[in-house]
Specification:
Layout lengths: L1 H8 L2 H14 L4 H13 L8 H17 L5 H13 L2 H14 L4 H13 L3 H14 L4 H14 L2 H14 L4 H13 L3 H14 L4 H13 L3 H14 L3 H13 L3 H4 L1
């Protein structure tokens, strides 16, 4: 579609003109309404999305939804918007509506599973992601979402198997490596955890999770200086309460009470 191609190239005004022309020809075109909604969210990207832009996008998507009872795109985009705004119940209602239209569409299963998980309905979410992973076994995203549901279910062994499946498809998947590294740490293999953490740091040196994993694995292996250095780096990159607490705890455990204070 020309409108979307222009949007991808950064020509927002050209894209808008194409979508407006489509609406003149087809008053309730879901493609045009969804395209205009995407424009509302993408313009000035990087400067933060104002509430006005989000409201404008939602209005366009609701119009597309109302006028096109079988159109999936507006419903799936609305699921994402509702999840971002914290309206978990609204997201679930919309995802179930999409599932009634196309129960076997991968995008629908992805949205449904995500909304179910956000609403704490873990068993249903797990079933949705199992169907998705079976439907598209070569998708790292599907396998990763399944791993998230398995983690919430408390099935660490199944989660680790799914994370390994993710890495078999996409070896550079950062969160899968970090998740698998945490699993190895929790199950007593700090060396594997450290190896995975080092891989993440090498691939993503400016991302916090790899440094945090290296720090925790190193402390477990009594590599104190290396561990503290990695934990300090994690907190430097992402100075939040969690990284501060991990560093503080490590300082206490390694006998650096003065540094922890």
């Amino acid at each position: 579609n020309l409108g979307r191609a222009l949007m991808r190239s950064g020509d927002f005004e050209g894209s808008r003109a194409v979508f407006q022309k489509m609406l003149e020809q087809h008053a309730h075109s879901p493609l045009a309404l969804v395209g205009l909604a995407q424009l509302a969210l993408r313009q000035d990207k990087g400067q933060g999305k104002s509430q006005g832009k989000i409201d404008s996008a939602e209005s366009l998507l609701q119009q597309a939804r109302a006028q096109n009872p079988k159109a999936l795109d507006p419903r799936l985009m609305l699921v994402s918007l509702h999840l971002r705004s914290g309206d978990r119940a609204g997201a679930l209602e919309l995802s179930r509506e999409a599932a009634r239209i196309a129960p076997d569409a991968p995008g629908v299963l992805r949205a449904l599973g995500t909304a179910l998980l956000e609403n704490g309905q873990v068993d249903e979410a797990l079933a949705a992601f199992q169907r998705l992973a079976k439907m598209i076994p070569g998708s790292a995203d599907a396998q990763f979402r399944l791993a998230l549901a398995q983690e919430r279910k408390g099935d660490a062994t199944a989660m680790a198997a799914s994370l390994r499946a993710v890495l078999a498809i996409q070896p550079s998947h950062m969160l899968a490596k970090v998740g698998l590294g945490k699993f190895e740490l929790a199950h007593g293999d700090a060396n594997k955890g450290l190896a995975l953490g080092n891989e993440v740091v090498k691939q993503y040196p400016t991302a916090m999770p790899g440094h945090l994993l290296v720090g925790e694995a190193s402390i477990r292996l009594n590599k104190v200086e290396q561990g503290l250095r990695a934990l300090r780096k994690a907190h430097e990159i992402t100075p939040i309460t969690m990284t501060m607490v991990r560093l503080h705890d490590a300082l206490l455990v390694t006998g650096n009470a003065e540094g922890a204070g």
